[in-house]
Amino acid sequence: MDVLRKKPGKGYRPCVGIALFGPDGRVFLGKRASRGVVPKFSWQMPQGGIDDGEKALDAAHRELYEETSIRSVSFLGEVEGWLHYDLPKDLAVWRGRYRGQAQRWFAFRFDGSEKEINVTEPPDGHQMEFCRWKWEDLYTTPEVVVPFKRPVYEHVVTAFAPYAQPQQGDIAV
């Protein structure tokens, strides 16, 4: 299967993925709060479904806020097209309604204070997706996500590599 397609494949849930870059060029990762995830592969970037009639960019802002409480971002770029992954057959997610996800990926720069980030008490009564978070080198993200998402993350790493740099004027730590 080609990971990148011009439009969502039949049987794939339309979603967004968000690469949030900190001022030092590292990317936000959340540790999944759900049970049954192998700890080594329990990290991921924010992601979520696109509601009916919702624009993908609007969904990216909404999902980022619902999962992290973050609103202070600026748009950097996006992957042209949809990145696909199949769910393993042994996962009983969506009760057979979808075979996987088709994601539009967006890159944002975090412009706020880390005090804004709250993954354990999501806003507006949303369910907690992450139990912890950290800033991570973009290039290592495929190593810490569940194996079936790795091809998508490898594509994201290549597409968003130019943003994995400290902001101009910042000093790398």
Automatic annotation (TrEMBL):
Nudix hydrolase domain sequence ranges: 11-158
Pfam families assigned to the protein according to its UniProt record, in alphabetical order: NUDIX (PF00293)
Keywords assigned: Hydrolase
Hydrolase in keyword set: yes
Top-level taxonomic group: Bacteria
Single biological process term from Gene Ontology: nucleoside phosphate metabolic process
EC top class named in words: hydrolase
Motif Nudix box: where in chain: 48-69
Enzyme Commission no: 3.6.1.-
Hydrolase among keywords: yes
Listed cofactors: a divalent metal cation
A single GO molecular function term of this UniProt record: bis(5'-adenosyl)-pentaphosphatase activity
Stored InterPro entries: NUDIX_hydrolase-like_dom_sf (IPR015797), NUDIX_hydrolase_dom (IPR000086), RppH (IPR022927)
Physiological role: Accelerates the degradation of transcripts by removing pyrophosphate from the 5'-end of triphosphorylated RNA, leading to a more labile monophosphorylated state that can stimulate subsequent ribonuclease cleavage.
NCBIfam families in the record: PRK00714.1-5
Family: Belongs to the Nudix hydrolase family. RppH subfamily.
Protein name: RNA pyrophosphohydrolase
Organism: Acuticoccus mangrovi
